[in-house]
Amino acid sequence: MIVRALLLVLVAVRLLADGVRPAELLWLALLLAAAVIATVAPESHEVARLGRTAEVLITAFAASTLNLDAAALLVYLPVPIVAAALSEGRRMAGAYLVAAATLLTVGGAVEGRLDEREYLVAAGQGLLISGASAYLVTILQRVLLARRPAEETPQPYAEATRLLTQLRSVARQLPGATLDPGGLAEHLLEEVRAMVPSVRGAVLSGSGGGRLVVLAQAGVERLDWETALDTESAVADAWATQQPVVSGRSQARSVARGQSISSMAVPLIAGVRTVGLIVLESDTPGAFPPALVARVQSVTGAAALRLEAALLFDEVRSLATTEERQRLAREIHDGVAQELVMVGYGIDNAVAALPNAEAAEEELRVLRAEVTRVITELRLSLFELRSEVDRYGGLTAAISDYARTVGASAGLRVHLSLDESTARLPAAVEAELLRIAQEAITNARKHAGAENLWVTCAVDPPFAQVEISDDGSGIGENRPDGHYGLAIMAERAERIRGRLEITPRVPNGTTVAVVLGTAPRAR
């Protein structure tokens, strides 16, 4: 605004130095009106754009058609062009520059001023200075933005909101179940095995910690696939080199060595990232020539992109769920739990102050016991909300820790039977299995009146079985919890393509089991 005002004053002084003429006053009045419009309105507003356009047109028109000093008039031309470069970018400044050059040329030709050397020099200088100023200003603007302190840069939450909004829009356009990593892996395995003869196969994906997880597998029996990336195997080589690897030995630790086996590990690459691997095996030597390997590679590109999108979506959903559980735990701990503790202390004080009022004292003692029970329930709920499957501890450790804590609080004898291989299930699957186990244990504690709790957990990816048994009253039609908790467990099991089984326990009690994958192999 200050530069615009100073240049207006400079132009007025130069034009009026030799006397006041009506044409000059009219031009100055029009230019002043356009300058006020361009200055008062917000830079990116349509009104400001109209004001800058008027400044350019009035300046170029007056310099070309009026019998005025063109050099004195065109001193003002860089102002609207530089302003356009700052607020609208280099392209709009270029459009203004072209418009000014066109008007100066056409107007000068109509008025016969193209033969005047002074006019041509003034027009050329005005256009050159305007263009150079706009270019230098945009360069300086980019440099300043690049050097802006980190605290002034857009907040990551704004970028996260933009990306999540795009993800939501894309997810709504996709056909059903296409953001399920397990379902996509099974479909890919079926597609590849239809093209390439094989007796067994698997799709593996990264999970962090130098190991892979089994998303899907096919074959006669479950196999203990090699999932470590620090071993000498085709799986590790394919992951490291991002190239298909054909081997003469099995990539499953449970297959006897020395057999005539052909195995192939093909990486699933999205861009420059290795998303996972597809492993195929045949009991025939030399079953995977280069032509077959090339055929498998022809379908892995698009499959890798779909699988990466599903894995990212799964991770975002898991992070959001974990954050919400932690938030709820903090709110309950800092709010209701603390208030109930204070109520309990108040009841204790009231009991101490009423030594002779036996009836009141008994009522208060009952009330204190009830408050203690509610506080215990809240603390267990907080523990449940905060319980997660540790990246290094595994699913069985998380379930056993929860069972021991609940058992100690409720006076239950807990019997554990844990069997977990070194391979890991996908993080989202482990989280759902933990929640199912927590719900089953909570039902046994709150409603069954049990004395013993049996927790059996067997994990050998992609197989998993979690079984919770109690010796309580069993499931009745009038149970206080109704069927809500059972419905939640069934929904969680269906989400990970597992089977939920609820059966009576002999001689009394209930058994809740969730099974994922095929039955265990014979040992």
Key features of this structure:
523 residues, alpha+beta, five-stranded mixed β-sheet, 15 helices
Task: Sum this structure up briefly.
The chain crosses the membrane at residues 27-44, 56-81, 93-112, 119-140. The protein has 523 residues and is α+β, with helices and mostly antiparallel strands.
Q: Could you please describe the fold and organization of this structure?
A:
The protein has helices at 2-16, 22-40, 46-65, 70-74, 78-88, 90-110, 117-146, 156-173, 181-195, 234-241, 290-353, 358-386, 395-410, 427-447, 484-495; strands spanning 200-206, 212-219, 245-247, 262-270, 273-282, 413-420, 452-460, 463-470, 499-504, 510-516. The protein is 58% helix and 14% strand. A hairpin with a 2-residue loop joins strand 7 and strand 8 (463-470). Helix 2 (22-40) packs antiparallel against helix 3, helix 6 (90-110) runs antiparallel to helix 7 (117-146) and helix 14 (427-447) runs antiparallel to helix 15 (484-495). The model is unreliable at 150-154 and 477-482 (pLDDT under 50).
Tell the overall outline.
Answer: elongated
- Low-confidence runs (pLDDT<50, min 5 residues)? 150-154, 477-482
- Beta-strand residue fraction: 5-15%
Order of helices and strands: HHHHHHHHHEEHEEEHHHEHEEHEE
Global Rg: 38 Å
Task: Return the average pLDDT rounded to an integer.
Answer: 76
The largest beta-sheet arranges its strands as 2-1-5-4-3
The biggest beta sheet is recorded as: 5 strands, antiparallel
Structure class: alpha+beta
Fraction of helical residues = 55-70%
Per DSSP E runs of 2 or more residues, the count of β-strands stands at 10
- Intertermini distance: 85 Å
Protein name: GAF domain-containing sensor histidine kinase
Pfam families: GAF_3, HATPase_c, HisKA_3
InterPro entries: GAF, GAF-like_dom_sf, HATPase_C_sf, HATPase_dom, Sensor_HK_TwoCompSys, Sig_transdc_His_kin_sub3_dim/P
Domain Histidine kinase/HSP90-like ATPase: 428-520
